[in-house]
Each structure stands twice: as structure tokens, then as C-alpha cells.
């Protein structure tokens, strides 16, 4: 199907990652009569799982909760590697007949809402042909997440240009990188770094993880014995559903206990780390973060691979600050120099909500920083626009599934009442706070470019699956939503002055 400037769809989905694929499946199932197109800037589906190609890339959530509610995860691995997750997403596309709806190398540049037509006009650049096209859509569902897929984050390291070896960022991993028998320094302490350390140590001469600040790290079995048993006894569908509920409850209990009793959680994690590490290892130097558990996301290591690699002597951790790069490695503030042939800057990601798409409503540019998020999925004053942001303290997809169900229910409500547009109105006197209450560096660097959240529902960006399940399964209409039919809508949706600026 060739897209033209006259194409009209009911829903345009931005992004063919785990969120966009999920939204397309729910639309196909719940609203089979509605037309939709998925546009993806990259040349393949999968989003994050297709983008990252560094050694060992895997999930840090169990796939019983990270997978879709409607499609059982049948692989034995619960903490799964990227190729298995990609296979799962490709299966979802094929099983639901979504291939013909996805258009690759289509990057959305801007979207303009016209109240007179109650439609979005979306401008898209096609990388395959170099042309700019337009699609008219009744709704936009933005499933692009909040990462910048074009460029990762790397601090300015003094002397970087002096280093004679190779510097690599995990987001741009060279396919031909040979690290066999090489000395590797991985800068960072997050999920990417703790994945790279054991994966690269299999071939490298030695791998050093250089961290400025430690991270909480907990081991989990790569395979969930209970999940595999339940699937065997109850079948894929029922076994998966029961495991999913079990794991959601376990995640929530662990999070709540950690937040309520941070000192106890800190001691428990330390004891686990101490048991996993060699006798006499300086646990408090390298595994004792200065913040409480879940102020930042905990890192999961499947089958204790990180600790096993440290015990083997193939890898080590150094906690220090970087003074500068040298010709042969990294000079630390302590005066020690780490020699390296390859330096991997696992220093985090940049964030770009809604993929950097410029939105305008009736000719006025939407200011994300002045908007407030309604039910975790709509921007105040912006009609017929949904965005998908998952959890930071649990599996991303748990939230996405709830948002997709609510989105479909909202469409059904509008159809049954003859409405063709809806937007949320925020009280201008409402107190707000940052959208994400999360101390991770990549989040803190970008919060001033994000929308805000309120202090109470429906304006809270909830991070609780149980709270969201109640909120999003409730009534669609409330006192902050404004619905309109063709002919009786105002010329411009009223955001109470919070979402649009001239």
C-alpha cells in the first residue's frame, strides 16, 4: 500500500516497538472496523529490542509481565535475551495480521490538529524515497516511548581525543567490533553496564566496570521454575495468566517493602551481594549506593552472571571518578590508571518524549512543559492524542496494556455518543510536579522538557499496576474531559491555558 497526501485513517500509531505493536493489536481486536496505520522511523520493528545490539542485551524484567497479557510467553527464559524478545514481537505482528499496517522508514515530523475537521494532519518524512507525505488521522497514538533513538548520552570526558584505542557507545554498537583478548573498560553502573561485563568477559582479556556511584544489583534465576511448571500443568494460557498475577504481586510487594523499610531492604541486598562475592571483597565500596533502593531502578543479573564473572577473575569493578582519558586508558581521580584497548561509554540515554514531534492545535504550538498528563496518557488541552509511557518500577508493558484497553474503551464511548473529539482540561491553579518521580540520571537530565503531573487522580502519573487497573477500568467520562460533536465544538479546545501557547 502506497501512502499519499490524501490518506485518511481513524488512528495513526507512531512507533512499531512493543507499545505500538500492542496498540495495533488491541485496535485490530476491539475495533476491527477502524482503519489504522503504524509508522516507524527505523527499518524494522521492535523498537529498543532491535536498536540495541551490544553483547548480552536482554530484559531486566521477567517476560511473564513484560510480555503482552493477550500473548503467553512460552520460552523457558523469564529474563530473556533480545533475540527471543524480537521473535516474540514478530510473532505478535504475524499472528494478528499487522504487517500490512506498518510502514517503515517513516519519521513523523509534526502533527497539526484542526478543530473544524476534528482531525490531525501529520507530516512524515520517508527515508526510502526522500519525500515528505501527509496522513490525516482522527486519533494519534504515540507509542515511541521516551528514549532518543538517534543519539545516546555521553559526558564530556577530558582528553577523549588522546585515547588511541576505540570508544564505543552501546546505542551505536559496531557490528564488526572484535574485543577478543582485549582489555575493556566499561564506564557506567546501570543495566547496560552490568549486562556487558559478563557478556564481554567471555572473550575479552579482562573487563573492568568503572563506576562513579554503585547501583543496587540483585540476582534472579534466568528461568522461572514455577512459571514453567504452571504452563506444563495448566497449559500456556492459564499458566501464563497465573504466573503474571504472581509476578505482579511479587514486584509490588518487593517495591512497597523497599520504600517502606529502606534500611532493611538495603541490608538484605547487601547480604545477598556479600554471599555472591569472594570472601573479603569490598562490598561497601562497590555495592553500597548512597541512595535508597528504588530511588533508581534496581539492576537484575540473571543466574548471578555478574557475580560469577567477578569470582572468576575475568572482570572487576572500580569505584572512582574519571580525571581524564589518556593515550592508553583512563586516569582516575585517585591517580590510578586503567589501561584499555576499548572503552565502552555505558553512560546512559537521552530522552525525547513523543519522538520530538512538534504538535500544534489550531495553529498554536503545544508546549509539553506547560501541559499536564491525564490518566498517564493524554496531554491537557490536546484533543485525540494518546501517549504511552510505561512503569519505571515494574515491567513497562504492564502499564501499556492498561492504557491500550482504556484507549479502546474511550473510542467505543465516543462512537456510542456520536463524539468525534475529546480533550482533558486542567485547572490552572492545580499544583503540579515532575512527570517521573525517579532519580536516575537520564530522567533527571530531561524532566524540564517533559509535561507535568498533578498531585491526585486523574492527573497523577501512577506507578502502581493495581492503582492504574482501578483508574483505567473505571468510567470513561469524568468532570475534566470535554467531548464534542461535529458542528458544536468550539473553534479551539480550551486547555485552561495550560497546554497551548501562541
3D architecture notes:
- The chain has 502 residues and is an alpha/beta fold.
- Helices cover 28% and strands 24% of the residues.
- The strands form eight sheets. Strands 1, 2, 3, 4, 5, 6, 19, 20 and 23 form a nine-stranded mixed beta sheet that branches. It has a five-stranded parallel beta sheet with strand order 8-17-9-10-13.
- Strand 15 and strand 16 (337-339) form a beta hairpin.
- Helix 6 (225-234) runs antiparallel to helix 7 (236-260) and helix 11 packs parallel to helix 13 (465-472).
Please give the count of helices: 13
As for the number of domains, it is 2
Low-confidence stretches: 495-502
Tell me the major beta sheet: 9 strands, mixed
By CATH reckoning, the class of the largest domain would read Alpha Beta
Rg result: 24 Å
Mean pLDDT, all residues: 92
Strand content: 15-25%
* CATH topology (fold) name of the largest domain: FAD/NAD(P)-binding domain
The helical percent reads 25-40%
Structure summary, number of beta strands: 27
Would you identify the CATH H-level superfamily of the largest domain?
FAD/NAD(P)-binding domain
Q: What is the CA-CA span between the terminal residues?
A: 38 Å
Shape: globular
The CATH architecture of the largest domain is: 3-Layer(bba) Sandwich
Structural class: alpha/beta
Cofactor: FAD
Keywords: FAD, Flavoprotein, Monooxygenase, NADP, Oxidoreductase
InterPro entries: FAD-binding_MO, FAD/NAD-bd_sf, Flavin_mOase-like
Family: Belongs to the FAD-binding monooxygenase family.
Amino acid at each position: 500500500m502506497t501512502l499519499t497526501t490524501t490518506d485518511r485513517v481513524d488512528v495513526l500509531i507512531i512507533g512499531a516497538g512493543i507499545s505500538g505493536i500492542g496498540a495495533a493489536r488491541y485496535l485490530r481486536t476491539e475495533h476491527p472496523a477502524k482503519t489504522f496505520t503504524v509508522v516507524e522511523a527505523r527499518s524494522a520493528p521492535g523498537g529498543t529490542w532491535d536498536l540495541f545490539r551490544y553483547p548480552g542485551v536482554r530484559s531486566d524484567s521477567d517476560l511473564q509481565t513484560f510480555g503482552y497479557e493477550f500473548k503467553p510467553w512460552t520460552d523457558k527464559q523469564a529474563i530473556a535475551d533480545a533475540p527471543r524478545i524480537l521473535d516474540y514481537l514478530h510473532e505478535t505482528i504475524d499472528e494478528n495480521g499487522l504487517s500490512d499496517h506498518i510502514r517503515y522508514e517513516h519519521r513523523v515530523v509534526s502533527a497539526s490538529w484542526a478543530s473544524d475537521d476534528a482531525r490531525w494532519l501529520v507530516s512524515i518524512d520517508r527515508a526510502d524515497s526522500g519525500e515528505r507525505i501527509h496522513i490525516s488521522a482522527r486519533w494519534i497514538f504515540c507509542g515511541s516511548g521516551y528514549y532518543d533513538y538517534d543519539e545516546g548520552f555521553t559526558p564530556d570526558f577530558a582528553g577523549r581525543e588522546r585515547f588511541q584505542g576505540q570508544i564505543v557507545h552501546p546505542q551505536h554498537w559496531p557490528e564488526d567490533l572484535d574485543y577478543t583478548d582485549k582489555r575493556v573498560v566499561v564506564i557506567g553502573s546501570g543495566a547496560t553496564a552490568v549486562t556487558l561485563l559478563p557478556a564481554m568477559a567471555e572473550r575479552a582479556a579482562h573487563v573492568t566496570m568503572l563506576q562513579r556511584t554503585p547501583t543496587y544489583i540483585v540476582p534472579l534465576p534466568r528461568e522461572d521454575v514455577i512459571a514453567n511448571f504452571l504452563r506444563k500443568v495448566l497449559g500456556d494460557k492459564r499458566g501464563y495468566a497465573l504466573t503474571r498475577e504472581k509476578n505482579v504481586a511479587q514486584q509490588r510487594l518487593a517495591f512497597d517493602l523497599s520504600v517502606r523499610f529502606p534500611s532493611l531492604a538495603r541490608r538484605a541486598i547487601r547480604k545477598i551481594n556479600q554471599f555472591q562475592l569472594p570472601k573479603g571483597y569490598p562490598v561497601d565500596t562497590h555495592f553500597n549506593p548512597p541512595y535508597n533502593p528504588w530511588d533508581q531502578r534496581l539492576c537484575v543479573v540473571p543466574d548471578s552472571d555478574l557475580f560469577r564473572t567477578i569470582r572468576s577473575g575475568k572482570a572487576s569493578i572500580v569505584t572512582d571518578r574519571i580525571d581524564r582519558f589518556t593515550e592508553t586508558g583512563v586516569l582516575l581521580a585517585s591517580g590510578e590508571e586503567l589501561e584499555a584497548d576499548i572503552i565502552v561509554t555505558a553512560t546512559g540515554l537521552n530522552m525525547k518524549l513523543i519522538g520530538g514531534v512538534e504538535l500544534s492545535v489550531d495553529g498554536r504550538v503545544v508546549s509539553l512543559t506547560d501541559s499536564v498528563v491525564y490518566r498517564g496518557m493524554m496531554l491537557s488541552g490536546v484533543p485525540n492524542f494518546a501517549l504511552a509511557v510505561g512503569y519505571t518500577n515494574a515491567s513497562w508493558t504492564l502499564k501499556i496494556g492498561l492504557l491500550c484497553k482504556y484507549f479502546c474503551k474511550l473510542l467505543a464511548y465516543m462512537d456510542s455518543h456520536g463524539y468525534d473529539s475529546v480533550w482533558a482540561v486542567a485547572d490552572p491553579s492545580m499544583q503540579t510536579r515532575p512527570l517521573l518521580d525517579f532519580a536516575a540520571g537520564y530522567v533527571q537530565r530531561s524532566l524540564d522538557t517533559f509535561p507535568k503531573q498533578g498531585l491526585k487522580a486523574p492527573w497523577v502519573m501512577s506507578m502502581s499496576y493495581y492503582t492504574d487497573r482501578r483508574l483505567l477500568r473505571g468510567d470513561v467520562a469524568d468532570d475534566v474531559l470535554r467531548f464534542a460533536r461535529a458542528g458544536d465544538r468550539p473553534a479551539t479546545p480550551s486547555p485552561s491555558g495550560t497546554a497551548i501557547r501562541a
